[in-house]
Amino acid sequence: xxxxxxxxxxxxxxxxxxxxxxxxxxxxxxxxxxxxxxxxxxxxxxxxxxxxxxxxxxxxxxxxxxxxxxxxxxxxxxxxxxxxxxxxxxxxxxxxxxxxxxxxxxxxxxxxxxxxxxxxxxxxxxxxxxxxxxxxxxxxxxxxxxxxxxxxxxxxxxxxxxxxxxxxxxxxxxxxxxxxxxxxxxxxxxxxxxxxxxxxxxxxxxxxxxxxxxxxxxxxxxxxxxxxxxxxxxxxxxxxxxxxxxxxxxxxxxxxxxxxxx
Length: 262
Ligand SMILES: C[S@@+](CC[C@H](N)C(=O)[O-])C[C@H]1O[C@@H](n2cnc3c(N)ncnc32)[C@H](O)[C@@H]1O
Fold this sequence. Notes:
- The structure is a single chain.
- The protein is of the alpha/beta class.
- It contains ten helices and seven strands.
- It has a domain of 172 residues: Vaccinia Virus protein VP39 (Rossmann fold), CATH 3.40.50.
- The protein has a seven-stranded mixed β-sheet.
- β2, α4 and β3 form a beta-alpha-beta unit.
- α2 packs across α3, α6 packs antiparallel against α10 and α8 crosses α10.
- 37% of the residues are buried.
- The model has no long low-confidence stretch (mean pLDDT 95).
- Bound molecules: S-adenosylmethionine (SAM).
- The site of S-adenosylmethionine has 26 residues, from α1, α2 and α3.
């Protein structure tokens, strides 16, 4: 798993979720789907610029926003000045045991060592508490994201050997291995018009997808950009004029007393 840590997100923070409200929309839907009680103590892990935290605040929850990127947290503090925003690493949470009713995490766990992070999340949740998270999911994009993935794999081979193939592990299995119980999942999708393929490319480079571009040598960067732009023009169902993407939401529970404050 690629470790997309603080440095990358410090670099993209200024542009993150500015051109289309992509993460804000999924964040609001994740909170709505989880439906925490107004009084719940909630940790938003990998909070970024506050896509999930903002919806938690609107729902009247007491939110702690944690992230490894200080630039992302600066954006969050600017938008949500009253929120308790802290530098936190999901692999080593500097938080007491059983201190949250709910942990939420938008588009983070797929870029982590999920086993370590899930164990930490289980530790800070109270018994009966809930962990809900989003990861990239399917969408009606005519196979474009899959084609983009093949371009990414091809250019990744220019900087490192391909990863060894491994048995696919479901999110439910990952949760169970950390002593959590997987109880529900759903999928949801968004689409946003953009000014054309160039604007679509800029959107792609405004979040975690930027990692490969920055890791390539300059000539390969240009070639990568050209290939993605060609794919947007020729293979995207809208010719690259609409961002179409999906997410999976998962809900897991920490065994223990019946769920409350949810
Ligand atoms: C794709 S962004 C999602 C941000 C926000 N949840 C949203 O939905 O817009 C991933 C975020 O996770 C943060 N992150 C990456 N590695 C992390 C880690 N080990 N612990 C905590 N946060 C991390 C990044 O800095 C970034 O803000």
